[in-house]
UniProtKB/TrEMBL annotation:
Location of this chain's protein in the cell: Membrane
Region listing for Disordered, in residue ranges: 45-66
InterPro entries membership: K_chnl_Slo-like (IPR047871)
Skewed-composition ranges (Polar residues): 52-66
Protein name (Swiss-Prot/TrEMBL): Calcium-activated potassium channel subunit alpha-1
Keywords attached to this entry: Ion channel, Ion transport, Membrane, Potassium, Potassium channel, Potassium transport, Transmembrane, Transmembrane helix, Transport
Topology term for the membrane: Multi-pass membrane protein
An example Gene Ontology molecular-function term: potassium channel activity
Organism superkingdom: Eukaryota
Species assigned in the record: Perkinsus olseni
A GO-annotated cellular component: membrane
Length: 250
């Protein structure tokens, strides 16, 4: 037990079912944003301006930066009903070389996070490990998986391609271990939506899915691209906010 704790933080030992697993290679700031959104009292906070009365042309031309929490809040209220009045546990599964792991542990120890720290398990491991998925994360009981990338401003263009590719493969592995779970995959580059349809969705559904509004929803898999900002042809967008998040519409 001591060695397992030293290597990866032990196991998730929550009671019941329906927890959320956050994985990928996220930055500490993105992790904080997601955790604060999940544990927000109404699960539906957003700093996005109301666009319900805007024309499609106006919405299409808008280029207002949105936070990751705001983007996530579009998905979470739809899933939150599955938990009822009970706040779900969250398992954070990070790579062994993750720079976010010590930072997020330190953040959870702060007094102002004491209300959520008991609901969060921070583990080191991989979605490609059957031991990590089935025994440590209890993947077969998870309600949802969030697969997150690092901040775009932290990596090169080639790094963004690598991170997206790895997250698509992570998505495939999660489906194998937790086929019943809802999966949200966040990509750095919009053109990599094609990887999700090729690797995850049935081929007969690709054309229909491509006509959707940027959210692929089939077999409980969602692909939310443009959430962390990107530029066409793999080039980084200039003047990104400090969080590295930007709403990029093609």
């Amino acid at each position: 037990i001591y060695m397992m704790n030293k290597r990866g933080g032990g196991n998730y030992r929550g009671i019941g079912s329906g927890h959320i697993v956050i994985t990928g290679n996220p930055s500490a700031e993105n992790l904080k944003a997601v955790l604060l959104e999940i544990f927000h009292p109404d699960h539906c906070v957003s700093d996005e301006p109301d666009k319900s009365n805007q024309s499609p042309e106006t919405r299409q031309s808008s280029n207002t930066p949105l936070s990751l929490a705001s983007r996530l809040s579009r998905w979470f209220p739809k899933a939150a009903g599955d938990w009822g009045d009970r706040t779900p546990d969250v398992v954070v599964l990070l790579p062994h070389n993750s720079r976010a792991e010590p930072a997020i542990r330190s953040w959870l120890k702060e007094k102002r996070q004491q209300d959520i720290s008991s609901k969060v398990w921070v583990l080191k491991g991989s979605v490609f490990s059957a031991l990590d998925m089935q025994q440590r994360c209890v993947a077969h009981r998870a309600k949802a998986f969030l697969i997150l990338p690092p901040e775009l401003m932290e990596i090169s263009a080639s790094g963004a391609i690598r991170e997206d590719t790895e997250n698509v493969v992570r998505c495939v592995s999660v489906r194998r271990h937790a086929w019943q779970s809802h999966i949200v995959v966040m990509l750095l580059l919009s053109e990599h939506k094609e990887l999700i349809t090729a690797a995850v969705l049935p081929s007969e559904r690709i054309d229909a899915v491509r006509k959707a509004t940027g959210v692929y929803n089939d077999s409980r898999v969602e692909c939310v691209s443009d959430m962390l900002g990107c530029s066409p042809a793999g080039h980084h967008r200039e003047e990104l906010p400090n969080t590295g998040l930007h709403d990029h519409r093609v």
